[in-house]
Structures are given as structure tokens and as C-alpha cells.
Amino acid sequence: MKSPHVQEDAMVFWEEADCTNQQRIRKKVKEIAQVHDILKGQAPGVPEATMGNRVLYIPVFRKLHPITELHGKDLFDVWHQCVLCHITLWKEGVYHRDINPPNLKWYKKDGKLIGVLNHYDLSSLANEPGPRGNERTGAAPFMARDLLTERGQRGEIKHLYRHDLESFIWCFAWISLRYKEGVLRPRGSRPFDEWATLDAVACGNSKLTLQSDMTVPACTHEDDPGWQFIEKCLFVLAQRQSLRSRKGKPTQESELESDMDEFLDSLKLTEGWAKLSNPSPEQ
């Protein structure tokens, strides 16, 4: 029996029956959620009825809230849960490929905030044939720099796990620096506004400048745990990009699960991660 305090939303929509990719992804995520605790409550809706050549979907979800409402440790906790959900799905063959703040949600259960990786519209499955470039994914402010190059925009760079994890970093920076206690800062006092208007290559160059300069934004303080985490993450990104360039492999066509774990672990080892995951009593 459902708790009377659980809020739910229903979304009704028609989808072409031959759009089987969406159905396969929903089914796959649901199957994975049965065996991985981090994915409990993540399974998307499944078909309820059919009519002609179209399928009627009436998926019922918990009431989800935008991650931009959160700040401090709550923001980090939900963000981290979405990261863990994402890597679990990727290893199981579901590639999300559209990491941005609107797709990161949360709800409360038994007093705990539960992070939800939402919307699989641009996702793909590992066993699908065809290109795996950047031909139809992402929004420039949150995309990995590799994918914001001219080659990346032509779909010539394979979209890998590391690109999505980099997107998570840009999402955290976007939310932490543009919002104050869950409220969007006034125009003129928030960074990155221009990223939403620049073309992809120019946005990538602006991100490179941020990584190179590491200038503390005017809206925050250098001792802010959120900024310290962002700074360390951008430093890790710069190191990894530099290492690939020195090896003559600025891009790659494949990665092992050990590569994925190593990248995520490199973020976990930063001082900024430690401060947000284990805050002092004063914070």
C-alpha cells in the first residue's frame, strides 16, 4: 500500500510504435534497477495500452524536484547519487549521453534525499549498430570540451563515459555558481550566462579559459567548499586532457570499465570531494 505522503505525477503521451529504441531503453533500465540498489526508483514508465500504430504511455512517477533547488551537502549528495546511477547504467549498456541540470532530479523518502537521473530521450544501448559520435546529444554549456570541437560537432569523436562524467562536473559548476541557496542569482551576478548563447566551439574555448585561469567567480569566495570542489575537478580534467595529448591520443575510440572507475576515483580523491561528502559540524 502506498504511503499517503508520497506525491506522484502522471504524464500521458503518444509515441510511434516503431520507435522501439525508447521502449528497449525503458525495459533495460527497469531490468537493471532490479539488481542494483542505486537504481531503485529509477525505472521509467512502460506501455499501458496500444491503439493502431501508436502506443499510449501513462507512466506514473514520484513527484520529482529540480536539483537546482539544492545547495551545499544536499546538492552534492543528490549529484553524487546521479553520478553513481549513471555509471551503473553505462556499465550495463545504457548510455545516457545527455547530462544537464534539468535531467538531474530528486525526491525525499524516509527523510533522505534520493537522486534521480531522468529523461532517456537521447540515450542509446551498447548493442545498437551505427555511429556513437556527438551527432544528436547534449547542450553546449554542459558538454565535454572534446565534443565542442569542430571534430566533435561533426560527430567524428565517439561519445564515451568520460564525456558524460565531465558533463556532470560542468553541471555542478553551473548550479553551484549560478544559484544561491536554490535561487537563481540576478543577471549580471552569475557566471556562464554567455555559454548559453555562444556556438559550440566558442563555448568550448570559454571552458578552456576557465580551466586555465581558475579565477574565482565574483559571486563566490575562494574558501567556499563548492568552488574548491569545482576547482579541483577542473584541475583533474586539465591533467587528464594534457596526458592524452602528450600520448598523442587527445581522443579515443573505446574505454574499459577500469578507465571509468579510475576517472571517477580521481575526483573522489580530491580535497574538495572530501569536504562535501564529510562536512564539518560547522557547515
From TrEMBL:
<dbReference type="InterPro" id="IPR040976">
    <property type="entry name" value="Pkinase_fungal"/>
</dbReference>
<dbReference type="Pfam" id="PF17667">
    <property type="entry name" value="Pkinase_fungal"/>
</dbReference>
<feature type="domain" description="Fungal-type protein kinase">
    <location>
        <begin position="36"/>
        <end position="175"/>
    </location>
</feature>
<dbReference type="InterPro" id="IPR011009">
    <property type="entry name" value="Kinase-like_dom_sf"/>
</dbReference>
<protein>
    <recommendedName>
        <fullName>Fungal-type protein kinase domain-containing protein</fullName>
    </recommendedName>
</protein>
